[in-house]
Write a structure and sequence with these properties.
The complex is a heterodimer of chains A (325) and B (316).
Chain A (H helix, E strand, L loop, with lengths): L2 E7 L5 H9 L8 E7 L16 E5 L5 H11 L4 E4 L5 E2 L3 H11 L4 E9 L5 E5 L8 H5 L9 E4 H6 L14 H10 L4 E12 L12 H14 L3 H10 L5 H21 L3 H18 L6 H8 L5 H8 L13
Parallel strand pairs in A: 1-2, 1-4, 2-3, 6-9
Antiparallel strand pairs in A: 4-8, 5-9, 6-7, 6-8
Helix pairs in contact in A: 6-7, 8-9, 9-10, 9-11
Chain B lengths: L2 E7 L5 H9 L8 E7 L16 E5 L5 H11 L4 E4 L5 E2 L3 H11 L4 E9 L5 E5 L8 H6 L8 E4 H6 L11 H12 L2 E12 L12 H13 L4 H8 L3 H20 L3 H16 L8 H8 L5 H9 L11
Parallel strand pairs in B: 1-2, 1-4, 2-3, 6-9
Antiparallel strand pairs in B: 4-8, 5-9, 6-7, 6-8
Helix pairs in contact in B: 6-7, 9-10, 9-11
Classes of the chains: A alpha/beta (325), B alpha/beta (316).
């Protein structure tokens, strides 16, 4: 089987739209399945899609998103895992685009373009993929590659241990955390096709946006504490098609910011370790020190692409959120 | 629902015995359930127990035991989780004893004694574990409690993140450590489970065991509050010596892997543990703990007893 779409749900009415957008996909010569993980604690409202042979429903007991998604992944039969939410939908032709991409690429994480829509389904903006290959530094910088628009190789997913427990991340950010953990060891590849429409906005959502800053910190600390992260991040910065100086500056920023954070939280030895890495990054920058991009990366907070696009669309659904210190 | 028994299986023929030993428990049938997680690639051999309303079957795809167990736990409805293996079985009154203990004590992990049996079902020895209360330093030293004889509070299980799927082999020890870091243990002196002993047909890769055990232990030492919890659980000079050793062995391991900053951190912690040991440094027990690996007494005690052992528990 080519892929399994896993949809965790708390039984929102939008679920039927999500499932049907998957069942409407065509995948010549290959098969796919939908696994609905009902984490609502009660039964699902009856609907047509429940009669489809491609759909399996399992019930978890109001644990949380990470547990529900990991449970769905464990019973999945596909070679790729696709995590959709119950208020998002796939666009026609998405699976075909992924099948073509999977044919030409062995990357651990495939993804495509996506639209962001408001609560009523109006498209606010459209984002097309730019990152490919070793994307580690961009993901550490909180660039967001949505799960809804991604196909993850099963072995890469389980090699990273699946989604981290929400408790260890103070309640959220598990999607970006997973992309960071996978980017540490795997490359990314993208298709230009627009594959998903994602609803943004906090109506009825279980996400706690106010805690995002701390969650990002926990996830980033976890990534920076991994032995392989420094060399992987430098390789990633050097592989960027544009703005290499900027990304090398960013790396130093992340290590120094982490050093400061650890010092503040009375972990002087972890702080020293991050500080040493920051200095090593500075020493290795050599020619880049002359570039204004480098100093821009080192000093100014990173502007998230998705966030910027949303701001430019004049329809910011969340209000102000601080992404970085 | 009070408890859910999760049985991961690769379709071994002993599975029916495990499931039936749970279904025959002498407590209310509507108060417990069995979740069989079939991690083999094929279907299970048809059997009578599959007709039971108390049993659910879920299929995973050869994902390793930790993933299979976490999956079963996520589907479970009980307040307590019980993880049985497909070649082990429960004593008929196991739940009576464990439930009573769980109801009377505020502990995240309650358990009873267990009986090791060989592949022919002959009794080898009895494990009389005695860990109770805050047992964190003991768990860090490698003391272990069989999952088969344990009930784990489901909320505690999910609060610590369940089984670590990246640890296979010592994942039960790893779970005990993470649970005991934040919760207490309680024990009942009744034999509640029979455990088949021996590596035959086992899916555990014992060659990866020491390295994975070390990695899992390192992750725990990285957490905050570890030293405090260890000190609170160390009731004798021997165990206070073990704290020093926990950090000292990690120091050596990290130096070998050139994680120098982590090594320095461990060095500082072992010094703190040493300095705060006070008069213990004059005790031979303390230095025995610092200088030698921990040997669990449970097995030795079981072996000593084996000569005067009662007849093996009857097989269901």
């Amino acid at each position: 089987m080519f892929c399994s779409t896993i949809i965790p749900t708390v039984n929102r009415p939008s679920l039927a739209g999500a499932v049907e957008s998957v069942l409407g996909q065509s995948l010549p010569g290959e098969d796919f399945e939908v696994i609905v993980v009902n984490d609502s604690g009660g039964p699902l409202s009856a609907a047509d899609w429940q009669r489809s042979e491609r759909v399996r429903i399992i019930n978890t007991q109001r644990r949380n998103r990470s547990v529900a998604r990991n449970t769905g992944a464990a019973i999945a039969k596909g070679r790729y895992l696709h995590f959709l939410d119950d208020d998002d939908w796939l666009l026609p032709g998405a699976f075909e685009a992924f099948a073509q991409l999977a044919h030409s690429s062995h990357a651990g994480w495939l993804y495509g373009g996506f639209q962001l829509a408001d609560n009523t389904g109006n498209v606010l903006c459209e984002i097309s993929p730019t990152e490919a290959g070793n994307c580690f530094v961009e993901l550490v910088a909180s660039e967001w590659i949505p799960l809804q628009a991604s196909f993850i190789q099963v072995s890469a997913f389980f090699g990273a241990g699946g989604f981290a427990s929400l408790e260890s991340l103070l309640g959220g950010y598990e999607d970006i955390d997973l992309s960071r953990q996978i980017a540490l060891y795997h490359d990314f590849a993208s298709t230009v096709a627009t594959v998903t429409r994602i609803r943004v906005g906090d109506v009825g959502s279980t996400t706690n946006y106010s805690a995002m800053f701390k969650q990002n910190r926990m996830s980033r600390e976890k990534a920076l504490a991994t032995a392989a992260s420094f060399s992987r991040m430098r390789a990633s910065a050097s592989a960027r098609p544009t703005g290499r100086g900027y990304w090398h500056g960013r790396i130093i920023y992340y290590y120094l910011a982490s050093a400061w954070w650890n010092l503040w939280h009375r972990r002087p030895l972890a702080a020293a370790s991050r500080g040493v890495h920051g200095l090593a990054g500075l020493a290795a920058a050599t020619w880049a020190l002359a570039s204004p991009d480098f100093w821009h990366g080192l000093m100014a907070p990173h502007r998230n692409r998705v966030w910027t696009a949303l701001e430019e669309s004049n329809a910011h659904p969340y209000g102000t959120v601080i992404w970085e210190e | 629902m009070f408890s859910s028994t999760v049985i991961p299986t690769v379709g071994r023929s002993t599975l029916a015995r495990s499931v039936e030993s749970v279904l025959r428990q002498t407590v209310g049938r509507d108060q417990f359930e069995v979740v069989v997680v079939n991690d083999s690639d094929g279907p299970l051999v048809a059997a009578e127990w599959q007709q039971s309303k108390s049993v659910r079957i879920v299929h995973t795809r050869r994902r390793e035991r930790s993933v299979a167990r976490n999956t079963g736990a996520a589907l479970a409805r009980g307040r307590y989780l019980h993880f049985l293996d497909d070649d082990d079985w429960l004593a008929p009154d196991a739940f009576e004893h464990l439930w009573e203990l769980a109801r009377s004590r505020a502990a995240g992990w309650v358990y009873g004694h267990s009986q090791l049996v060989d592949r022919q079902g002959q009794a080898i020895l009895r494990l009389r574990h005695a860990l109770s209360g805050n047992c964190f330093v003991q768990a860090m030293a490698g003391e272990w409690v069989p999952l088969q004889a344990s009930l784990i509070d489901a909320d505690t299980f999910f609060a610590v993140g369940g089984f670590n799927p990246l640890v296979s082999g010592p994942e039960d020890v790893d779970l005990l450590r993470r649970v005991s870091l934040q919760s207490d243990l309680a024990v009942t002196p009744n034999v509640v489970a029979c455990i088949s002993w021996g590596a035959e047909h086992s899916t555990t890769d014992y060659r990866r065991h020491p390295e994975q055990s070390r990695l899992a232990r390192e992750q725990i030492l990285d957490r905050t509050g570890v030293l405090r919890r260890m000190r609170a659980s160390a009731g004798s000079s021997y165990w206070r010596g073990r704290i020093v050793r926990a950090y000292a062995t990690s120091l050596v391991w990290n130096v070998r892997r050139k994680h120098l900053m982590t090594a320095a951190s461990r060095g500082v912690f072992s010094l703190v543990a040493l300095l705060s040991a006070g008069l213990d440094v004059f005790s031979p027990d303390f230095w025995r703990a610092v200088s030698r690996p921990h040997a669990s007494e449970v097995f030795n005690q079981g072996l000593r007893e084996a000569g005067r052992l009662a007849p093996p528990l009857s097989r269901p």
